[in-house]
Amino acid sequence: MKIVLLIISVMVVALLSNSCEESFSPKTDFQEKYILYSIINADSSVQTAVLQKSYDVHGFDPYINTTDPSIQGADIRIRQGDNVFFMRDTSTERSDTSRYNTPLRFYFTDEFFSSGNDSLEIIATLPGGKRLYAITSLPTTIEFDTASDRLLPPEDEELFAFYWIGPTSTHWYLPKFVIYYKKNGVRFAKEVPVTYNFENGKWVETYPEITNNAVVRFRVSSLDSAFEQISRGDPDKSSYKILSGVLTLLVFNESLSNYYSTTNGFLDDFTIRIDESDYTNVDGGLGIFGSYIRQFTSALFTEDYIRSFG
After folding, report:
1. Band of the pLDDT at 250, cuts 50, 70, 90?
2. What is the pTM of this model?
3. C-alpha to C-alpha distance for 116 and 106, rounded to whole angstroms
4. Of these four, 141, 142, 187, 290, which has the most CB atoms within 10 Å of its CB?
5. Is the pLDDT of residue 296 over 60?
6. CA 33, CA 54: separation in Å to the nearest integer?
7. Quick one: average pLDDT of 199-224?
């Protein structure tokens, strides 16, 4: 069975074991703590979790530790109403072995399904009997506003935008706009940056960031550049067929939004780090149990615009 792994990078730094006393000692007595991390992709049957413990080191640099702090043999289950999903202990090859040379340990289930809008619970029972618990909700779905640009590019405008209707004070979002096209019948995708910035003597793409606004705007010049790159250097323009543009919006639930707004911990679609102790929703330990969904809207390109690239 092919396992689709949600790559997780969980890091426990000195704040878990070091603090400051009145004597200004940079390190206090070590207290072992447990960290549970699981982000539910409500659109998938595959869910993952990572369970780790804090560690002590000689001196003050936590990165000198080379013993993987992952905990094996725990009982982890996700519950929604009467449905219980048991997570299996497994491992995969670690892509970065600069610090740990053992396999990456995690827990997973490929049998998850969501039934309604009931809250989700996760219960982790460690081999010694200690129990970690967290509860979270599924994200609230959004609607895309009719004010969004559906035919691109808009006439005589420097920007095009997508708007959605959803909570902004408690929920965060991550947009991504992609051009889908075919070359000789094979389907490809080209992501569009929001803009380009001139850095260190060259133009660098800037892509959408996580936001609690209900809008994302792209420069038309960025769309121009993406289109030009699709067939750059290929004289056979007739082998390309532009299909459409699709905006994918990751919608985070309140727990995950709170985590991001507190720690600014977002790295990419599938990676997160725990490097601050400011936010946790896990009883009996530290960590984050949250969820997200993907929602989509599309846009078309004018024939004249497509033809302008050959």
Report:
1. very high
2. 0.82
3. 27
4. 290
5. yes
6. 5
7. 93
pLDDT tens digit sequence for 61-112: 777 777 888 999 999 999 999 999 999 999 999 888 888 888 989 999 999 9
Among 60, 64, 9, 65, smallest CA distance to 35 is for 9
Domain ranges (residues) in the chain? 14-139+253-291, 143-249+296-307
Name the residue with higher pLDDT: 191 or 115.
Answer: 191
pLDDT at 8: 39
Compute the CA torsion angle 199, 203, 209, 213 (nearest 10 deg): 100
Task: Using alpha carbons, list the distances in angstroms from residue 218 to 65, 160, 177, 223, 247.
Answer: 43, 5, 9, 8, 11
Annotate the chain with DSSP letters as a single string: -------------GGGT----TT--S-------EEEEEEEETT-S-EEEEEEE----SSS-GGG--S--B--S-EEEEEETTEEEEEEEEEE--S--SS--SPEEEEEES-----TTPPEEEEEE-TTS-EEEEEE-PPPP-EE-TTS--EESPTT-SEEEEEEES-SSS--EEEEEEEEEEETTEEEEEE--SEEEEETTEEEEE----BSSSEEEEEHHHHHHHHHHHTTT-S-GGGEEEEEEEEEEEEE-HHHHHHHHHH--EEETTEE----SS----BTSEEEEEEEEEEEEEEEE-HHHHHTT-
Is 36 in contact with 284 (CB distance < 8 Å)? no
Of 93-102, 269-278, 293-302, which has the strongest mean pLDDT?
293-302
Over 60: is that where the pLDDT of 231 sits? yes
Q: Quick one: CA torsion of 218, 221, 222, 225, rounded to 10 degrees?
A: 160
DSSP-assigned beta bridge partners for residue 222:
none
Q: Which two tokens stand for residue 38?
A: 């699981």
Q: What is the pLDDT of residue 2?
A: 39
One-letter amino acid of 282? V
